Amino acid sequence: MDEAKPSVGIDLGTTYSCVAVFQHGRPEVIANRQGNRITPSIVAFKNKERFIGESAEIQGKLEPKSAIYNAKKFIGRNWDDPSVQEKRPYYPYNVENQNNKVLFGVLDGTENLKLTPEEVSAAVLLKMKTIAE
Asked: What are phi and psi of 24, to 5 degrees?
C-alpha cells in the first residue's frame, strides 16, 4: 500500500504565521531559517528591498514607518468602517483611503509605497510557502 503524500497547511495569523506538514500520521510545524516555528506577519521595506518575518520585525524597530503589521485586521474592510477609523491612528505607517478601500503607505527610503492589506498578506503567505518548500 502506498503512503499518502504529505499535506501542508498555512496559518496566516494577524501577528504571527506558521506552516505545518501532516505526514506519517501526525502534524509537524516547520521551523523557519532562524529555527522558529512561528514567523512575524510583518512586511518592511528598505532600499527597494522587501523584508518579511523576523528581518521585517527588526527593520520595523529601526524604522517604524517602513514596516506594516496587523494587515489582516484590515482585509475586507472599507475605509468608512468604524473599526478602521478606530485603529488607524495607532500605527506608525499611514493607513489611507483610496476609493473607500484601505491602503497602507510606507516609506522606502525617500519613496512612498502604497500597498493593500491583501498585498501585505500575500507577501507573508509567500514567505510561508518558501518555508514549506
From this structure: 55, 30
Cα(12)–Cα(45) distance, rounded to whole angstroms? 20
Query: Which set of grid coordinates corresponds to residue 57?
Result: 520585525
Q: Is there a contact between 121 and 104 (Cβ–Cβ < 8 Å)?
A: no
Q: What is the pTM of this model?
A: 0.89
| Secondary structure of residue 20 in the 3-state scheme | strand
CB atoms within 10 A of CB 27: 11
Task: Say whether pLDDT at 133 is over 90.
Answer: no
Q: Which residue from 44, 22, 49, 19 is spatially nearest to 131, judged by alpha carbons?
A: 19
Residue 123 main-chain phi, psi, to 5 deg: -65, -40
